[in-house]
Amino acid sequence: MNKQTFFFLISFLFISTEQFSQGWIPQTSNTNEIFYSVFFTNENTGWAVGNNGVIRATTNGGTNWFNQTTTFPGPWFEVHFVNPSTGWICGGNGVMKKTTNSGNNWFDIPSGTSSTLYCTFFINDQTGWIVGGPQTPRKTTDGGTTFTQQTIPIGGSLWTVKFLDSQIGFATLDAGGFIKTVNGGANWTPYSTGTGGTIWSGFFTDAQTGYLSADGGVIRKTTNGGVSWSAQTSGTSQLLHWVFFPLTGSGNLGFICGWSGTILATSNGGVNWNSQSSGTSQNLRSLHFPNSQTGWAVGDNGTILKTTTGGLLPVVQISSEIPWGFRLFQNYPNPFNPVTTISFNIPVSQAKSISLKVYDPAGKLISVLLEERLSAGKYEVNFDARNLSSGIYFYSLTTDNFAETKKMMLLK
Q1: Would you state the CATH architecture of domain 23-307?
Q2: Among residues of the chain, what percentage have pLDDT more than 70?
Q3: Which residue ranges does the chain devote to CATH 2.60.40.1930?
Q4: Residue 256 contacts residue 278 (beta carbons within 8 Å)
Q5: How does residue 125 score in pLDDT terms, banded at 50, 70 and 90?
Q6: Cβ-count burial of 406 within 10 angstroms (0-12 exposed, 13-18 middle, 19+ buried)?
Q7: Which residues, at least 6 apart from 208, have a Cβ–Cβ distance to it below 8 Å?
Q8: Which part of the chain has CATH 2.130.10.10?
Q9: Which residue would you say has higher pLDDT here, 14 or 294?
Q10: pLDDT tens digits for 21-46?
Q11: Looking at the DSSP assignment, which residues form a beta bridge with residue 342?
């Protein structure tokens, strides 16, 4: 082997490891502060805000994050934009700021309260709401120049507020609290969620269908506008901090992030929530998708993660030569710590999705590595198990006319 070929192979292996090790890729934030919120107006333009006044912005999809400054040293808990130019941030002590030039300059707007502000949501550049501690929710109809207090029928901190239009909105509270309005917040009605834990986040995909995430791995779903809620299986006991369904994607496609690097995804409206490999053990506090495939998650220690595959692990075609038949190979290395490669053969192009899933010994679904249509060839995908405990796991390849399962060992 000549020197040129050697360096080509080394470069290829390095690129493959970096680009295809997981469905979520870490980005460089240049800070160790906690990020509480992330928001993107398109695939390139976004902001992340957090502790000690940190604001990071990007105009190239997160390849570079640059600093934006304000005079406020406290935490920013939420960032929200209605277009690439106009946005708001809110935080401790009722402090709120607005930008009309993409964050190049942030100026004060009077929230009218000294309560901590945890969330802000605007339906256009004039009408929006803020929630947090006492003296909230508050509403503005002039872009934040003035806010008026609204009355709610129950007490407690409000953690999130979102509106579907100028009339229909909802907010989540402590102790399982959920309230809804159908007249722009003039009146709020409480409904029981069936859980006593803090409802950290909520999201409605339409006027009837909504989701809540809470302490202890709790997920609730409603199909009647919040009047009643049913439990969904999360497969985790971690605190689930943020739920988001991409509005430009399928109404059934959603994501939840939480503590210890937890990211869950559903493609069927929560019938199944599948664990995704985030590649981190940091607490994740917010996520946002401008479309169904591209998204970001942020959290502790300056963590910013990006996916362009809807969080699924990218599959790499390593040969286009048509195999003789289906085959699932033994993972390599095995035992492994924490990443291993799984290879398989597909002899004919698939009209329906092929699935590659990982299970624990009890049959509990751990991760969905692949769900997509593939052409004939040989493929491989990496499985990152850094958030799992040592032990035996099983991986299964399934198509319309083939299914095979093999055993692998994680040894830490």
Answers
A1: 7 Propeller (2.130)
A2: 93
A3: 316-410
A4: no
A5: very high
A6: middle
A7: 222, 223, 224, 225
A8: 23-307
A9: 294
A10: 358 999 999 999 999 999 999 999 99
A11: 381
CA dist 281 → 157, 300, 352 (Å): 27, 9, 34
Tell me: the pLDDT tens digits for 191-220?
Answer: 999 999 999 999 999 999 999 999 999 999
Looking at residues 139-153, what average pLDDT do you find? 97
Q: What Å distances lie between residue 261 and 61, 96, 264, CA to CA? A: 21, 29, 10
Whether the CB-CB separation of 162 and 170 falls below 8 Å is answered with yes
Residue 31 CA to residue 33 CA, distance in Å, equals 6
Q: Provide the CATH topology of domain 316-410.
A: Immunoglobulin-like (2.60.40)
Residue 36 · residue 285 · CB < 8 Å: yes
Q: What is the DSSP letter of 9?
A: H
Neighbours of 270 (CB within 10 A): 22
3-state secondary structure of 94: helix
Residue 212 exposed, middle or buried by CB count within 10 Å (0-12, 13-18, 19+): buried
pTM of structure? 0.79
Classify the phi-psi angles of 144: left when phi > 0, otherwise alpha if psi is within -120 to 50, otherwise beta. left
Helix residue spans in 301-340 (DSSP H)? none
Is residue 333 reached through a cis peptide bond, with omega within 30 degrees of 0 on the bond before it?
A: yes
User: What pLDDT, on the 0 to 100 scale, is given for residue 351?
Assistant: 67
